[in-house]
Design a protein that fits this description.
mainly alpha
């Protein structure tokens, strides 16, 4: 998944900067931009990616059993 989307916030008339910043932060979080950046910060070998995916599925299975 590429980061081709930008979080755009349009300002309404008379809207404060603080509210715009809150809107922007909310939009960034909803789109998952920061989590994607953290995930792509360092190269991850394909074996590591498969290992993490396997651990995540095992964790989900364990949570369902409890």
């Amino acid at each position: 998944m590429f980061l081709n989307s930008m979080a755009i916030v349009r300002a309404n008339e008379g809207e404060s900067v603080e509210s715009l910043i809150r809107k922007f932060n909310k939009k960034v979080q909803q789109e998952g931009i920061l989590t994607e950046l953290r995930r792509r910060e360092f190269y991850e070998k394909p074996a590591e990616t498969r290992k993490k995916a396997k651990q995540a599925t095992e964790r989900k299975i364990r949570m369902k059993q409890e």
